[in-house]
Amino acid sequence: MSSPFTKTVVFYIVPDFTMLAFTSAMEALRLANAVQGAQAYRWRVVSGDGLPVKASCGLTITPDGSIAAEKAKPNADRAHMVVVCAGWHVERAVDRSAAAWLRWTRNAGTTIAGICTGAYLLADAGLLAGKRCTIHWENLPVFKEKFPAAIAGTNLIECDSNIYTCAGGAASFDLMLHFIEHEFGRRTSLAVCEQAIFDRIRPPSERQRSLVRTLGNLNPLLLAAVEFMEDAMAEHASIEAVARHIKLSRRQMERMFAKELATSPSRFYLELRLDRARLMILQSGMAIIDVAVACGFVSSSHFTKCYREHYGVSPNKMRLKGPRSAQLQSLADAP
Asked: Residues in domain HTH araC/xylS-type (predicted)?
């Protein structure tokens, strides 16, 4: 049955959008309807021109309409929330008319959300300047370089001024769970989790990907040092500065890294910077010198030398042969 409080969610999809992020968000709404026994949410899908859109997995979705048709909807049928769904090659999905529509939607007071790489399109539309946001970890380095006015972080979910962004994948389900809990309470959101065999509602502040979490139950001082390195990547803080941050001498910190990770702090930091550079090379068309500077290297020649020694291939050659997913690259060709 229909509910007098039914909310309309419009999903805007672009070529190469991530199906997992898209369906995770939609399924959460469907399950909320099932748990409530009423149509708490309804949704429709739009594309820029109303034509079918192929996801990154190769499946094609036929939308319900176009942006122009969406703008022509009567007030009673307009969206309560617009969810921008993107994925690979998001820079190719930039569209002036879509950006204007997003600004128009925002100015009308509609809640806006960007999932997976949707934040890129929101930032391009000028909606994230000075606002906290997040994006899938693969795209974060490029995003920060492209949109320095946005306050981008690594949390699963961010909200600032009624604009929501999330990392995508299963985090899209988390995002909708928070909306469901706000509307219908904890009991309903937990019931949705049970239906989806989702073990818990993750807090928005949980980091989507962090070496601190990956490294696990190690010395807290070492974890603090690694987190400082991650946050100070572009500045390439000195090893002495890292040691001062955790209130150890350089020699004490070196012994700690040797014992816990069987490497030196300088080597560990170099590999962190090279990994970020790899993400930027595979996820953007940035000039190699710009990638080098963004990752704390003083020259492109020094960067290229370190990169070739670590990955066995130059940055330019990796870009030419590599897939768009940096994670797939690291699994296939890790040294």
From this structure: 223-321
